[in-house]
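Chapter review: from sequence to fold.
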Amino acid sequence: MRKLILFLTLAAATAVAQDIASFEKRITVKTLPNGLTVVLMERPEAPVFSFVTHVDAGSAQENVGNTGLAHMFEHMAFKGTDTIGTRNYAAESVALKKVDATYAAYQAENEKITGRDAAKVALLEKAWQQAIAKADQYVVDNEFGQIIESQGGEGLNATTNLDETAYNYSLPENRFELWAYLESERFLHPVMRQFYKERDVVFEERRSSTDSNPQGRLIEQFLSAAYTAHPYGRPVTGWPSDLKTFSAVDAMNFFHKYYVPSNIVITVVGDIRAARAMPVIEKYFNRLAAAPAPEPLRTQEPPQKALRTVVLHEQSQPVYIEGYHRPGYTDPDDAVYDLLSDLMSKGRTSRLYRSLVRDRHIALNAEGGSFPGNKYPNLFFFFALPADGHAAQELAAPIHEEIEKLKTQDVTDDELRSIKVRARADLVRGLADNEGLAFQLCLAQARYGDWRELFRQIDRIEKVTKADIRRVANATFTEDNRTVGMIETSKDAGGNAESNKGEQKQ
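The token string follows.
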């Protein structure tokens, strides 16, 4: 076994060293005059390319009252431009302004705390709905996506999380200029068409993922308990009241603040030549107007001083989760937390799986790691699903036994070597395809200002010692720093009164 680990260690280290050396020969990085950063990697294995547009704004950047807006704008970025998705933009633009005006009037009356006139609200809502119907007659549904698919595009997608928003798809290499035009156009001329129809879609996403999902409700309540100040305690999908009230004007204000070139990194990987591709990118993306980068997030989560507990009574599978505050990705100990995550939950050989699932048969699944984001100080969590006949609370003691081992006993030499080998192997596997490579390079460039940090993380992992693991475990996994969340299966056969009850203790 030790010979195998040594072989894998040397092989992975050699592969990473070769990759970073070859990457430097094939990667071109340029910051355009307007502040947008471009990373191009020549990888001519097949006549295609993939890209990622990374906007350094997620739901953590939203203001109170506008939660869910980052995700909402992600949806709107597929609605087209002033030339795509419209039958007559001149007329549509006028109609959309009428939608904005009627919605503002409706909201002003509807949100009155005193003196609200219900009859007036109904009339104003009717006028707003009529304005929407008039604007909708100019819409060509899904034209942006249809253009991309008709030109051989694949994987058209986007994602929003607490930390950022990213857009991606792949195209044949002979459609590079078309891509540059389309991707720049949707951020040069965004149109908030069908905004309120799409807002309903987002609300339904929240309903299915959270409101109608016991585990979704638990995670939301758990994070709300763990965070008292920082926006990591808010849901990416937004609070229901916000999803019913924010406007297309709010979305455009969010766009103008955060979708500025200095806050965007674009990475392209595939069958391209930088000498030909960069002038095309400059031609189209230099059209985006320069603007100051948004101010950094100011709010920091104060140190937790007491155990916090959330218990939901549901007609569902019991669940146990606990989390401990840990620093963000720039902390010197970030690599230690990566190793802790691997040690505790990477596959069937991980400590949690072996102890709770394989040996004791008290859990169906057990894992640990960091969430809900990693740009800011986040949580190291332990999560487990009890096996039949076992309650959520029963999992606390065995999990704490494993935590105590981290604090009092050194990991073995074989464990430490295996973890480090897997970290290198995971990196190498992540470089296998254009899309995965574009994501990793883009994130490293956006977070650190240098794509090479993708590889330097391996160096940081290599330097982690047994003493580091014990030190970080003792500093992090303390009672006062712990938040616990549980679903206890309700005994109410009707599933009514008990199913919505919950407790929160601090």
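Two observations follow directly from the output. The chain has a mean pLDDT of 93. Residues 147 and 153 are 9 Å apart (CA to CA).
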